[in-house]
Prior knowledge:
By secondary structure, the protein is an alpha/beta fold. It contains 14 helices and 23 strands. The chain starts with a strand and ends in an 8-residue tail after the last helix. 1,4-dihydronicotinamide adenine dinucleotide binds near residues 181, 200 and 350.
Amino acid sequence: xxxxxxxxxxxxxxxxxxxxxxxxxxxxxxxxxxxxxxxxxxxxxxxxxxxxxxxxxxxxxxxxxxxxxxxxxxxxxxxxxxxxxxxxxxxxxxxxxxxxxxxxxxxxxxxxxxxxxxxxxxxxxxxxxxxxxxxxxxxxxxxxxxxxxxxxxxxxxxxxxxxxxxxxxxxxxxxxxxxxxxxxxxxxxxxxxxxxxxxxxxxxxxxxxxxxxxxxxxxxxxxxxxxxxxxxxxxxxxxxxxxxxxxxxxxxxxxxxxxxxxxxxxxxxxxxxxxxxxxxxxxxxxxxxxxxxxxxxxxxxxxxxxxxxxxxxxxxxxxxxxxxxxxxxxxxxxxxxxxxxxxxxxxxxxxxxxxxxxxxxxxxxxxxxxxxxxxxxxxxxxxxxxxxxxxxxxxxxxxxxxxxxxxxxxxxxxxxxxxxxxxxxxxxxxxxxxxxxxxxxxxxxxxxxxxxxxxxxxxxxxxx
Length: 464
Ligand code: NAI
C-alpha cells in the first residue's frame, strides 16, 4: 500500500497526460492500468494503429494510381498483410513504450492491474488498497452495439474497430454499419486493400454533426474512390453464418427490407463510456442516462475527491479533448485554474483527403440566427494540392458578417488535420477573417487555401 496525492485510473491520452501534468506540478502521482501496455484505446487499438494502416494503404494507392503519372515505372507493390500488421504493431509499441518512458521520467508510478474504488480516498488494485487524496477516473470508452438490432460481435466475422485492425486476412466483401469516423477511416483502409466496401448508414447523410457541405463533398469523393453507400437505412439484424454474415436493413423512406452478405461486418455505430468494475454504484457517483459520469465544470463528480475526464464523461469522444481535460483537472487538483475551451476542439477524419472542422457549422449559425458570411476556396486553385493529386476539396471559413470575427472552419483536403490549427489559434485569439487574409502564407503550401478562404470573406480570393 502506498499514499498518493493523486491516483489516475486509466492510462489513455486523458489519464497519462493528467498524471504527467500532476507530477510536474509536484503531486505524488500514480496511474493504474490493467492492459499489458500503456496508452489506452488510442495508442493500442484506436487512433495510432488505424493511422499506421491508413498511411500504408494510402502509399499503396499512390503506387497503384499515381506513380506511373509521375514517371515512376516498375513492378507495382503487392500486399503482404502480415507484414503490414507487423509494421502497425511496431508503431503501436514505439508509442506505448514512449508513454512508459514519460511516466518514469516524471516519477509517476504505474500500478499494474484493474482498479476499483471501495470508498473515496482509496483505490484497490488486486489485493492492494492504495490511499489517494484525489482520484481521476479516465477509464475511457468501449464500442457500443447497433441500437435496437440483433447483433452478436465475435471480433472475427462481426467486428468492432478492435477486430477490424487485426483481421487474419483481407476480406473480399465488408459491410460497414455506420458512416461516422470509424466506419469511414477503416472502410477506406480496406477499400484501398481491394475489399468491396458497402457502408450502411441510418441517417440521410454521412459524418453526423459536420457541416453539410463537408458531408456532401466527402460523400462524393468517397463514392468516386469506390465505396458504396446506402443512406437512410437502419440495420436490424446481423446473422453470422459459418464464414460469412448476413446483414438485414430497412430503408427508412419505404420500410422495405433488404439483405446483404459480407465476409466481415464492421460495427461502427458509436462508443459508450467504460466504467465497469469501478464500483461507482456503491459509491453513489452520479451517471447520466447514457452512462456518462456527471461532473461540474472542473471535472468534479458529486463525490468529493473523485474527478472524471475523457470519454467517460460528456462531450466529443476525442483523444485531444481527453488530454486537455486531463491537464486541466490536474491543474485544478494542484490548486491552479485548469480550463478547457469546448468551443475550440477540432475534429479530424483521416481519410484521403482529410477532413477537419472547428467551431460552428453553417447549419448551427442559421439555427442560432447569427448574421454570418462564407468564404470558400477550392483546392483546385492551390498549386501544391494539384502537384500531389489532391485538388478535390475546399476550405470553408465562416465569419460574423458584422464584425468579421471567425466563427468556424471546415476543410476537406490535403493535410486538413494540420491546417485547421491556424483557425483554432485564430478563434482562441478572437481573430477576424481579415487577420488571416493579411497574414503572409508561404508559397507553395496547402495553407494558402486557408488564406484564400479568408480573402473570400472580404474582397475576394485571388486564385479562383
Ligand atoms: P459515430 O458516432 O461517429 O458514427 C456512428 C454512425 O452510426 C452514425 O452516423 C449513426 O447514425 C450510425 N448508426 C447508428 N445506428 C445505426 C443503424 N442501426 N444502422 C445504420 N447506421 C447506424 O461513431 P463511430 O464512428 O463508431 O466512432 C465512435 C467515436 O470514436 C466517435 O465519438 C468518434 O469521434 C471517435 N473516433 C474519432 C476518431 C478521430 O478523431 N479521427 C477516429 C475514430 C473514432
